[in-house]
Amino acid sequence: MSGRSIARLAVYAGSFDPPTLGHLDLIERASELFSDVIVGIGKHATRTPLFSVEERVELVSRVSAHLPNVVVESFDGLLIQFCQTKHARVIVRGLRAATDFEYELQIAHANADLEPAVDTVFLPTRTKNGFISASLVREIASHGGDASRYAPALVCEALTKKFAKR
Predict the structure, then answer these.
(1) Stated pTM of the model
(2) Residues 86, 39: Cα–Cα separation, whole Å
């Protein structure tokens, strides 16, 4: 077996509202496993995010700027369609707990049914990030709490500004 790695484009998608240290850890790990990573920020017509899609793209771009093989884009519609347009063969999904697994497996099966050429890879979160969620970070920040243990500093600054306007 040769020491050469196979070029492979992966998509790590989510709402990233806001991006957390758990998200950043998964982006960094995916960037080490795959030749190129697109962080796809989904637009959901049924959700009202705290940050606009443009703000989320900017935040994720800034926190992942040190990773030369990572780009950040927004998308509308099904993730599997986004992967098809980008010619991505891999979807990266993070798992925090066993409860995440059933839902993520169902989505992975549906995606495989819609496009068999795209595989889903599950990465468990690091133990220290296992309980971190964007909703937890939003809740702490909305009450003026210190979310710096759970989100990058520039995200905490953006949260402070966002909640000061309310």
Answers:
(1) 0.92
(2) 12
